[in-house]
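User: Structure please.
Assistant: Input sequence and predicted structure:
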Amino acid sequence: MEQSEIYIKHYINARNVLIDLLYTIIVSTLIAAFLTFTGITTKSFIINLIVSQSFGISICSMIMFLLWIFKPKKMVSLVFIVMMGIAGGTLIGLQIGSFVLQQIFSITLMQPEKSLFRAIILAITFGIIFSYFFIS
């Protein structure tokens, strides 16, 4: 087997996908607790939890969907698919998070330009870190 070939048959198994989603929910909750404790975003745990879960589950679902559709055979393809999943999941998670906060909890975040940029940067950063964790 070449160095550039990989086998990710693991992701096609429904049990392993559910386990990865469970890990994502746990990690997203820990990220929300970390952000609340450090005060990087807001001091409200519920806001951080909703936004963190919306980003985490969206990114994880998007990556899983792309892996299921494209079934990459080389590491370069895998990295490209994961990066596209992180980008798409970030955009979807941003919309879901703001929708849930505004429509269900009637919470509007202050300084939308500053918090939007910060949320995107944090989602991409944590998405890359934890995607590496799931891939390796």
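The CA atoms of residues 4 and 74 lie 5 Å apart.
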